[in-house]
Amino acid sequence: MSDLDSKKIILIHIKSYCDEIMKVFKFFGKDYETFLSNFIFRNAISMPLFQICELSKKLNKDYKEYIEKTKNEIEWNEIIRMRERFAHHYLDMDYKVIFDTALNDIPKLRRVISKEINNS
Predict the structure, then answer these.
(1) Residue-number span of the structural domain to which 8 is assigned
(2) Residue 38 parent element (H or E)
(3) Smallest Cα–Cα separation from 11: which of 110, 103, 79, 102?
(4) How many structural domains is the chain composed of?
(5) What are the Cα distances from residue 31, in Å, to 36, 81, 96, 103?
(6) Is the whole-model pTM more than 0.85?
């Protein structure tokens, strides 16, 4: 598999997790109080978000040129820091940050990586 194919596969997986999050919002709505009170809603957002963070870390490790090229559009360092919190500081996770990230940042991430997927 070529380097380009591997990067594209990672991006396709990230896009897929973005799609999952967007579908969860369609199913549950976009109400923060519902998110707080419903563990199924929280888990349905948190797990794909964690996977996006995990894949972003791999992208940062193996494809620094892509990270550099898109750093003005996507806050990759913030995504990677969120991954560290999910993995190592889960008792300190801020549900408001998770909700806001999923609601506001995931659609933008999806748009940016979709361009790359379509151009490669």
Answers:
(1) 3-115
(2) none
(3) 110
(4) 1
(5) 9, 25, 11, 10
(6) yes
Residue 107: burial class (beta carbons within 10 Å; 0-12, 13-18, 19+) = middle
Within-domain flag for 93: yes
Cβ atoms of residues 53 and 82 within 8 Å: yes
The whole-angstrom separation of Cα 64 and Cα 22 is 27
- Burial of residue 24 (CB within 10 Å: 0-12, 13-18, 19+) is buried
CA 58: distance to chain centroid?
13
Query: pLDDT per position in the chain (120 positions), as tens?
Result: 455 588 999 999 999 999 999 999 999 999 999 999 999 999 999 999 999 999 999 998 889 899 999 999 999 989 988 877 776 556 667 899 999 999 999 999 999 999 999 987
Please indicate, yes or no, if residue 120 is contained in any of the structural domains: no
pLDDT at 80: 86
The pair of structure tokens assigned to 97 is 């940050």
In a domain, 71, yes or no: yes
